[in-house]
Each structure stands twice: as C-alpha cells, then as structure tokens.
Amino acid sequence: MADEPNPRRKTRTRGHVIADLGVNYVERQVLLAGYVVERYRFDYGLDLWLQTFTPDGVADNGHAELQVKATDKLAVRAGGTTAAVRVEAADVRGWLLAPVPVFLTLYDAAADRAFWLDVQEYVRQQQLDEDEFGRTVTLRMPLAQVWTPAAVHALRAPTVAAAARQVRGGRGGER
Amino acid sequence: MTRTDWPTFGRMLDYLRGLGFEVRTNPNGAVVAERPGEETWFVFRGRPAGEPARGIELVHLRSMLDARGLVTPREFSRFWSESGPRQPEPTPAS
Asked: Which of A21, A59, B1, B34 supports an S-S bond with B67, CB 3.0-4.6 Å?
C-alpha cells in the first residue's frame, strides 16, 4: 500500500522564504551598524530585540523591539511616498503597550531593501484611535525611511532615551 | 509568544532581585528592574507575575547580564531550566 501523505505535513512557501529573507536583511543592517539583534523563534512567530552599543562597545541599557514583514510587491501609495502594510490590529495594540520603541520593518523582496516605521510614534502622529480598528490595520510605511546601517545608528539615541525615561520618570510602586 | 514550561514573569523578577536589582512598576504599567549605583536596568511589559516570561526577554537577560559581568550564560541557563513548572504547550493562535 502506498504511503498517504500526512495531511499535517508542512510545506515551505514563497511567503516563508521572503519572511526569512526579510529577517536576515533586517538583522544584517543591524550587524553592519555594529549592533546586535537577539531573536527568539517560538511556535508561530519570531521576536526580535535590537541591542545597541556605545561607541566604546558597551551594551546600552535601552533596547527596541523589531517586527519584520515581507512582500514581493510593495503596495505603493500617496504619490510614491508610502507603502501600505496591513497588520493585525491585535499586534498593533500589543506594540502600543510596549514600554520600549517598536520598529516595524517592511522587506521589499523584489528590490532587496527594507523600510522602517516607529509604530508608537506613527499612531501618535496619525492620531489613530484603537477603538476604531477592525481586525486588521493598514499602516503607511514611509519609503524615505530606508533600513540601513546609518538608519539603525540614528535609532540608538531615541531607543536609549525611551529606556531612560522609564527609569527616571516613571517612579512607581515597588513590586 | 510564550511557553508555559519555563520561568514565570514573577520568577524572572525574583531572579533579578536576587542579583541586587530593585523592581518597581511605573504608573504607565511598565516594570523596571534597576541595579542601584550602576547603569544597568531592564524595562519589561507589565503583566501578572504568574504569566510566563517571554522567550526574547530571557534571551536578552542572558546576554545583558553576561555583558555586565553579573551572570555567565551557563549560570543563567541553570536558572532558566530549573525555574519553570512543567505544563502543556499552549495552542498557537490561528
């Protein structure tokens, strides 16, 4: 009797390929900047954590979370200045609750490049109302914000400042 | 995004307290663990102590505590492997 394929057998799709390429690309730009990305892969996702360093090579206390989306075809909008990125509203709500910056990156597989967005700052500037989110939210990724080593360097200061604000300004109850 | 067979969030904070960190909750709900007199702190998403720690938090703790010369990765691995209650794997969200 011929073996029947296991119906739960997984297949590797183009989506999986570009998702991994996207993570690899985002990580590489961080490494070229001299910083580190820490990753933890769990059953159905991947958490990335940007660790920056002082010019002397000492790990900063601040960190940021990175999210990576990938696409084979950018959905360019607004005269070519932004690309639409659809994300789960539950994810956005979680990112807004993070006490550290969350940078959403969009990997353009066709051009092998990526763009980035500070999610919390974006929601603040666009004055988005969480109560009006549907199941998904479409964010506009600025195509001027290219994910490069220089861009990663520039994110060090706000990342460290955000952590320092939590430590200095948020004096609250002992746990 | 978490597993239920490893350290809880509360156990992770207890571990940091044992290393001399002071732990507090900010008015905005963020949990800060700070080592007095040193430029070393961690900021976590606030949540109940019984919830599992996030894998990425544990990974970051391991590397940062090592970078600060406080705990070697081997010592930290002992904490990680010895801390969690054994429970079934959660069902991934569809």
From this structure: A59
Here the CATH number for the domain that contains residue A105 is 3.40.1350.10
- Of the candidates A47, A58, A175, which has its C-beta nearest B54's C-beta? A47
Q: Dihedral of CA B32/B4/B93/A51: which sign?
A: positive
Of residues A44, A49, A99, nearest to B56 (C-beta): A49
| Residue B93 counted as domain residue | no
> What average pLDDT does the segment B65-89 reach?
77
> What pLDDT is stored for residue B93 in this prediction?
40
Chain A positions in Cβ-Cβ contact with residue B41 (cut-off 8 Å) = 61, 163, 167
Which structural domain range is residue A49 located in? 14-165
Please, how many CA atoms are within 13 Å of residue B33, restricted to the half-sphere of its CB?
20
ipTM score assigned to the predicted complex:
0.76
Residue A111 reports pLDDT greater than 90: yes
Q: What is the DSSP string of A98-117?
A: -SS-EEEEEEETTTTEEEEE
